[in-house]
């Protein structure tokens, strides 16, 4: 397991994927800060050409609770794409680069290889989440947003981290899709399908029962009068992640790796 972890870490470090995902979260933090800047003074934003006359951003609450809640919503929606691409790359590259046979010839169990890939993906995703938290705090401090308190920060950052964690778990099935599809294409299709389905199911009012809609509902993306995640919703999200890991391990152990 240690050798597999080192190998997967080196692969990520020497790839472009780590800075691409880092750039994605940098943009997410910048967008959150921009929205708060607009919310502070919509008139100023319009003069600078940042806000159109019919834009809805003028109603945003420019304070610390609103800022952290917005970052949580951004992480729950955009995180599916960023974490999903990371998972798909980690598993799909072995087939696209035709290195899977060489990998499986090493004196390391297939279970250890799969678990190492999930561990590295989870570890880097945690770093990205903490990075977004740091960007959010820095952006709010620069704008001198009102409403700061230890309780508000703990609540807002806690929900952001929880939403990111649930989002990460929901990307684990894409590892199975990348493995069974022997590359990126099937997994990318599964990613798009999950995102599209989450929007449709939430619009129909059943988002609390559909795991891929839960993180966004948890962060209050539908507003105080909209849908909310039920107490059972995080359980379904955790179940998806656990089942996906088990199914991926089983596939790697049993599949005939000839490609």
Global structural class: mainly alpha
Q: Tell me the count of domains.
A: 1
The average pLDDT is 88
**Uncertain regions: pLDDT < 50 for 5+ in a row?**
none
Number of strands: 0
Descriptive notes:
With 259 residues, the protein is an all-alpha fold. It has one domain (2-254). The chain has helices at residues 2-13, 17-40, 42-47, 64-96, 100-104, 110-143, 150-171, 173-180, 185-204, 214-218, 233-254. The model has no long low-confidence stretch (mean pLDDT 88).
Outline the fold blueprint:
Elements: H1 2-13, H2 17-40, H3 42-47, H4 64-96, H5 100-104, H6 110-143, H7 150-171, H8 173-180, H9 185-204, H10 214-218, H11 233-254
Helix pairs in contact: 1-6, 2-4, 2-6, 4-6, 4-7, 4-8, 4-9, 6-7, 6-11, 7-11, 8-9, 8-11
State the gist of this model.
The protein has one domain. Helix content is 74%, strand content 0%.
Essential attributes:
259 residues, single chain, mainly alpha, 11 helices
